[in-house]
Each structure stands twice: as C-alpha cells, then as structure tokens.
Write a structure and sequence with these properties.
Number of domains: 4
Strand order of the largest sheet: 1-3-2-4-5-6-12
Number of helices: 18
Structural class: alpha/beta
Helix content: 40-55%
Distance between the termini: 45 Å
Strand content: 15-25%
CATH topology of the largest domain: Rossmann fold
CATH superfamily of the largest domain: Response regulator
Largest sheet: 7 strands, mixed
Number of strands: 19
Shape: globular
Radius of gyration: 28 Å
Length: about 575
C-alpha cells in the first residue's frame, strides 16, 4: 500500500500576526485523483479566500485501492502524529469514503479533540460510519434510478446498458448499490457489468456493443486485472472506442465524452466543504445542517454528443441546458457574410502587392513570439513536474528514512551508535527541508493557491531569511482573480530573477520590492543599494537572466526598464497588462 504525506504552506508566516490555522486533509486516493480533484481544488481555493486568517494546508494521501495491513496503518499513523507533534491540527477534512472510515477508526489515536469535516461521499455511506455528534458532514445523493430514466428518455429504444465499475472495495460497494437500484428496470432493459474486466477488455467490449446500447461510466479506480487508472484517462480511452453513447455522474466529465443529464456539481460541493471547515475553525459562516446532503443539479447536455448520436433537442427534459454548441454565423448572417467576403476579396485584389511583404514579416514575428511562448510554457511545465516529483516522491522517501533512523536511535539508546543515528536523522531532516525548498523555488504552489501578492511576499521573506540582505516588500491590495495566471507567473519570475541578480552580483545591503496597480496593469519595482551594473548595454545583451526577463514581459504585452549606475544600485521596473495577450 502506498502512503504519501505532503505539507504545503500556502501563506508565509508572520511572526507579528496571529499564527495560521492548520488544516489536515486526508485524501482517499490522492489529491489529484478524479473525481475528487475538482472538489479538493475548489475547497482549498474557497477556504483560503474566505478565511480571515492564513491557512496552512497539510495533505495526507492514502492509496485505498486495496485494504492496508495493520503494519501499514501503524506506520502512517505514527508519521501523521510526528508531523503534528508540536500541536494538533485546527481542523481535519476527509475526502472520499475510505479516508473517512480510516480516520474514524483511528480517531482516538490521532486527534480525538480536533473538529472533523467528512466530505465527498454519498449519503448511503454516511449511514455506515460512526459519525460523532459534533462532526460536520457534506455528502451527495446520487440518484441512480434518475440516471437510468434520463438515459432511457434520450434513447427510448435502448435494450442494453453496459455499466463500467472497477474491483476496489469502494467500487464493489457501488456495484452492489447499482444492481439493487436498477433492478426495477430489468424488465425493460438488460444490464451488462464490467467490474471483472480489464480496461483493455472494456475497450474491446464497448467497441462491439449491439445496436440500441448505452454505457454508464460509474467508477473506475482499479480494473478487474488489478491495475489502477486515473478516472479521466479511463473515460477518454473508452470514449475513443465506444460505438454507443456514454453517460456519467459528474460535472467535470461534461465536455469530455459523456452525453450529460442531471449531475453532481463538484464546484458546489467544494464550496460547501469550505463553509463547513470555516465553521469547524471557529470562524463566522452561514448556518448549515450538521449532515448536509447535496442532490443533482439541473440537466446539462453536450451538444456535440447529442448531434453525434442523432438525439433531437426536443427530447431533452424541460429546463435542460445545452453546452458546447458554437453559434452558426453562416446560418444566421449568410448575406452579411457573403457581402463582407466579396468586399474583402475586392480590396485584397487591389492591395495584395503591398501586403505581401508586410504579411510575411508579421508571420515571422508571430512565429517568433509563439515559439518563445511555447519555450517558456514548456519550461514552467517542466519546473512544475520536477517540483511535484521532488515534493511527492523524494521528500517522502527522505522522511521515511528519517523515521527509520529515529526508530534505530531509540533501539540503540544513548550509545555511540545512538549518537550516530541521531546525527543521521538530523542530516536527513535537513536534506528533506533543502529538497522541499528546491521544490518551492522550481514551482511555488502559493502562486496558484493564493496569487501573486502572497507569492512575492513569500519569496522576499525567503531571500531575507537565507541571505545577509534586508528585503522589504510593499503591495497594494490586488485581488488574485484580477491577475491571470500567465501574467502572475511572468511577474513572479521577473522578481525572482531580479532578486537572484542582487544576491549574486550587487553586494547590496537593502532591497525594496513593490507591486502597484497602474494604467490597467500591474507595476513591479525592485530597487537595491548595491554596486550597480557596469557597462549596462553589454550586460543587458549578454546576461541570459536579463534576456529572459525581457522576453517574458514582451510575451504578455508589457515593458521592462533597467536603470543602473555604478555605485548607486540598480532598479528593475516591469509593467504588464492585466488582460492576457494571445
């Protein structure tokens, strides 16, 4: 069984302010596992945005594709307790039914007095858990008969429904529930169950289903061959081969191959979990029932799937929403389009000779811009991947080694070997912290979680702690939502490169970093009192760091100025528009 614990500090700690609240999130299958990933992302973002105090998120990932051994459970419990050996978390949130069952089973060994929010599970499973009187529950109600009724309303000639589920403990529970709740439909339609098949066998089967068939994509964590799959990847592979329409349950699947219908909104679920957690933390929040059950939202359908399978829109339930249907400009404005095309052709014939050179030049410029953008985008994606691997793999393995060293130290006592094991443990802890810091420098998660202002503040604080330089940061209040992620990444990397140059070359004692909203954009200014840049024009052309800053700013439609005089320090001023450029 694979266990993973990762601690993510989403805001910098301010020693002069009240300390951040710590929220431990237990994930049944991992933070990025669909369909829980969308719920988790909305929950984290909404909680951090609405909380009156900073939030430290600590994620514990449990692989529940099979039942853990007692030894594995003990190892994980010991690791979580060691992570919070100074003080228990302020609140605990479980994502998915296996995580809820595990925590409730071991609650007394972990944090019996900590408020608990049980989330992202069906109300059927809530009845099976020993939920405490003070625990908050945010559950969903999957209306299985309603899903079947929706399928038969759209496809009244359906004779066979293939149901996709897997073989994990959770999936076996849902197979039982599905078989029980679809039993009333067995006189009307035949059901075929895929829970014993491998994904490859499922692909072969959906490719040769008989006419008047449909597919219900339920839950696929572990296929019949014991191979785990990410939900969206499994759905994509089935959609690519299926000769029949596919239906599902979740909002995130709309537009990814399912027909549509009544659905569970992961966005709404995540917002409700954030509200319950605010209450658990003792903050003011709208009153909610202790056990909150969210039902299906109004039907939504994918116009492309409706057209693909020849389903007329008049067959849809009243009040249905249709998405992904691009408006037909040709049908609505045929005469205007023809007249415009004719005018453009005439004008083009008159000036084509003058435009050829200009068009070629613009084409070359666009290709250069696109190439630069793709290179920087690929660089950021690679940094993100490396940071995730360092954080989720290397640091966890180092932590496991530290635990083993601690056990060995206790076993040998105060002997010389014990001192050696203590030193090894301390080195492992320091190495884990260094790897975590490297992961942060590669890709700071705070930039996506809380936005540019918090990321810059954290970076300045980090430089100030690690280097003999005083770094002051000042910013106007700027909402995270107002800065597109590409723009925020550009500004953060420019600031990071400017601070790196100060540390390496400036011999400065003080650095001032400021962020201001100006002229429909944001202005970043980095001033130092160092030695300045000698021969600035040559430096500007030869330094890869300065070239990278200029290129990043240019790609988002901004401007960069560098003012430096020997002995009078250096100023880097970047302005970027808030509207993303394409």
């Amino acid at each position: 069984m694979a266990w993973a614990l990762l601690a993510v500090c989403v805001v910098p700690f301010d020693a002069n302010a009240e300390g951040p609240k710590r929220v431990l999130t237990l994930h049944s299958f991992g933070r990025d596992f669909a369909p829980y990933d969308t719920v988790t992302s909305v929950f984290r973002t909404d909680l951090a945005r609405r909380s009156p105090q900073p939030i430290n998120f600590v994620d514990a990932n449990l692989d529940f594709s099979r039942t853990p051994s007692d030894a594995e459970e003990r190892t994980f419990i010991e690791y979580v307790r060691m992570r919070f050996e100074d003080a228990p978390p302020d609140a605990i949130v479980t994502i998915g039914p296996p995580a809820a069952g595990f925590y409730l089973k071991h609650r007394e060994e972990l944090f019996p007095g900590t408020p608990l929010v049980i989330a992202a599970l069906d109300e059927r499973l809530v009845r099976r858990l020993p939920v405490g009187p003070n625990d908050a529950v945010v559950a969903a109600k999957v209306d299985l008969p309603g899903v079947i009724e929706n399928m038969l309303r759209l496809l009244p000639k359906t004779q066979l429904i293939a149901i996709v589920t897997g073989s994990s403990d959770l999936e076996r529970f849902w197979s039982t529930e599905l078989r029980r709740e679809v039993a009333p439909f067995e006189k009307r339609v035949r059901f075929e169950w895929f829970n014993d098949l491998s994904l490859a066998q499922m692909q072969e089967r959906v490719a040769r289903l008989p006419p008047n068939s449909a597919v219900l994509f339920g839950l696929l964590i572990l296929d019949g061959a014991g191979i785990p799959y990410e939900r969206q990847a499994a759905l994509d592979s089935l959609h690519a081969t299926s000769n029949s329409p596919i239906f599902g349950f979740y909002e995130s699947e709309l537009g990814s191959g399912v027909m549509g219908g009544p659905y569970t909104s992961q966005k709404i679920g995540g917002e409700h979990i954030a509200t319950a957690t605010l209450s658990a933390l003792g903050f003011d929040a709208p009153a909610r029932p202790r056990v909150e059950v969210l039902g299906f939202e109004s039907p939504v359908y994918d116009a492309r799937e409706l057209d693909r399978w020849g389903i007329p829109h008049k067959q849809l339930p009243p009040g249905s929403e249709i998405r992904f249907a691009p408006p037909s400009i040709w049908e609505e404005h045929r005469m205007a389009v023809l007249a415009t095309i004719a005018a453009l052709v005439i004008q083009a014939a008159l000036i084509v000779a003058l435009l050829i050179q200009r068009v070629e030049r613009q084409k070359a410029e666009r290709e250069a811009v696109h190439l630069g953008g793709r290179i920087l985008t690929a660089q950021e994606e690679e940094r993100r991947r490396l940071a995730r691997e360092l954080h989720d793999d290397v640091t966890q393995r180092l932590a496991a080694l530290a635990i083993d060293a601690a056990k060995a130290q206790r076993a040998v006592g105060l002997s010389v070997a014990g001192g050696t094991m203590h030193a090894i443990r301390q080195h492992l802890v320091k190495l884990s912290e260094d790897v975590h810091a490297l992961s942060y420098r590669l890709h700071p998660s705070v930039l996506e979680d809380l936005g540019l202002v918090a990321a810059l503040k954290a970076e300045c604080s980090r430089i100030g702690r690690q280097e003999p330089i005083r770094v002051d940061f000042d910013s106007e209040p700027i909402a995270k939502a107002s800065i597109p992620i590409n723009t925020a990444t550009c500004v953060f990397r420019v600031a990071q490169e400017a601070l790196r140059n100060v540390v390496r070359h400036a011999n400065a004692n003080n650095v001032e970093v400021s962020l201001r909203a100006r002229d429909g954009g944001v202005t970043l200014a980095v001033h130092d009192d160092g030695s300045g840049l000698a021969a600035l024009p040559d430096k500007a052309h030869t330094s890869l760091g300065l070239v990278s800053m200029r290129e990043r700013v240019r790609l988002v439609g901004g401007s960069l100025e560098i003012d430096s005089r020997p002995g009078h320090g250096t100023s880097v001023i970047a302005w970027v528009p808030l509207k993303e450029t394409t």
